[in-house]
Amino acid sequence: MTKKTSAPVANRVPAERTHHGDTVIDEYAWLAAKDDPATIAHLTAENAYTEARTAHLEGLRAELFEETRRRTQETDLSVPSRKDGYWYYTRTVEGQQYGVHCRRAVRDGETAPPVSADGAPLDGEEVLLDGNLIAEGHDFFALGAFDVSPDGRWLAYSTDFAGDERFTLRIKDLSTGELLADEVPGTFYGTAWSADASVLFYVTVDEAWRPNRVWRHAVGTPSSEDVVVHQEDDERFWVGVDLTRSERFVLIDIHSKVTSEVRVIPAGNPTGEPAVIAPRRQGIEYTVEHHGHRFLILHNDGAEDFALAYTSADAPGDWVPLIEHSPGTRLESVDAFSDHLVVSLRSNGLTGLRVIPVGDGDAHDIDFPEPIYSVGLDANPEYRTREIRLRYTSLVTPDSVYDYDLVTRQMVLRRRKPVRPGPDGRPYDPADYEQHRDWALADDGTRVPISLVCRAGTPKDGSAPCVIYGYGSYEASMDPWFSIARLSLLDRGVVFAVAHIRGGGELGRRWYDEGKLLAKKNTFTDFVACARHLVKAGWTAGDRLVARGASAGGLLMGAVANLAPDAFAGIVAQVPFVDALTSILDPSLPLTVTEWEEWGNPLADPEVYAYMKSYTPYENVAAVDYPAILAVTSLNDTRVLYHEPAKWIARLRAIAPQGDYLLKTEMGAGHGGPSGRYDSWREEAFINAWILDKLGRA
């Protein structure tokens, strides 16, 4: 019996919408009806078509999966982090999809984190939560909260078995291993304990999936008795909750895309009224960290790239400058320890860490040897410490965990993620690969950075195939990262490039501002400029270049497909935001109103409407020769709804039927795709096999 190889046809009653005098016919709007059997049948048929069209890659997919599995140390153990009298860590076990969360008591005289041979359990460990046991009987599993109480007695954790990011919150008694009767359905990320662990704060979402309420739950009582501590009625804002590292205050963080407000509750008085640090002012963002007698405030009030100030913890008022604004150096966060502050920053497109002693001593930046890298703080739960943990990586250096002595400035490598030998049996050697920083020139003369990695000696004569990755939204930076799965591409002669385009945050707040709202098209033209530059500089050729992006980066993929279809041999769009205008016009959809400060409000502003319509991929499909397109989505995604790529692929087939378009839908997952690590490796193998096929390297 042969599989059906003809493309599915979407043919139902079209919908009509009118805004600002513009009437639009949407012939595929019916695909938004998730519960309609016709929708499920269509997605199922698309999956069957995609499987049939890629059947010739089945062997390559298996080969790529096996290469990732072979190179990965499957039984492994994270570097334990110390909190009070315990070391906390996570283990993985060969053959199991999910992590095992554990702790072990600190032993007399033990200062360095314990290690084990080949990731074996530590002697005397206590298993707090085994994700594999919880996930039994479920196709999807994600952990939301994982929060041990200050006294070490309780574990608050939450689970999602659908991928829709609505979690059920539970409390486990770590002294007995028993689950309490306490159970709260429909929660979101974020929890915070009171000082005495009698109260747990958590967050829920509204019907639009916006986290809008912070609740107080008394341990041992029914959730029906829980109390709303803060309800945010302004639909532009979302809320979060956290406990300061000092464990002195519960922070309620209230944020829109451009404005923020923080309220605090003393952790020792969990029933107290939240106090406002500074009332919200449109366009002013700030975050708060507790440090002794003061609250540290990282803010952008008159400081485009942010400055650091402080105010009294007893009576918050005026902000006293601590680090003045320095244009071009973006201050991203501040972490407080008893005798030191650590500021995470970004300068010249690279991340960095600045240590500021309290009292005597000069501030200093921590140095790193590679020209391109990414560094940030890792788990640092203890407030009173002279040592911090940081995580470092680059395009050729696997994820590395260091402990850094804040006083002596000595840095100790605790662990570098093992990379086992590949198919040729040779151990991984970073010297076998090269990383480069290049610059493209955008249409308006702006220089756009590109990070590249390839096998050593890869020719720059245009003969090498290349994958170019991009995102460019929300001030999110695509800093260099190491990938075991990517090695399978590099070893087949593929160059991997990351375009650090405007809309991201790589070069500071201005880089973000110049790629949002009515400047959004800079994101797309920057990416095309990077692609053209790679060809001009000899890194690759236009018929050997595949573009890849996800979520808002999927919008980027759809936009550049319309803008420069000749520039690419293929495009991979994962959970792509390709029907942006339709979604942003509908305030009832998840997260729409909170997005207006990123994209603009096309409902209220005709200029925004016209601008968005001019670039939204779905609105601009044309009868042109598109490159091959693979769209990957998930049925339960609440951030970018599955029907956006489903509609996009249907319209591409109708208007430009000569093209090669595939849609792959995970029928039981969310925005992040499959949840288990082996399932994730298989998904990546599927995508990379398709890429290699389009690059002629299959």
Automatic annotation (TrEMBL):
Keywords: Hydrolase, Protease, Serine protease
Peptidase S9 prolyl oligopeptidase catalytic domain: residues covered: 481-696
UniProt KW Protease keyword: yes
The organism's place on the tree of life at top rank: Bacteria
GO molecular function: serine-type endopeptidase activity
One BP term from GO: proteolysis
Pfam family name, one: Peptidase_S9_N
Leader sequence residues: none
Peptidase S9A N-terminal domain ranges (all copies): 9-412
InterPro entries associated with the record: AB_hydrolase_fold, Pept_S9A_N, Peptidase_S9_cat, Peptidase_S9A, Serine_Peptidase_S9A
Family: Belongs to the peptidase S9A family.
Name the UniProt record assigns to this protein: Oligopeptidase B
Organism: Micromonospora palomenae
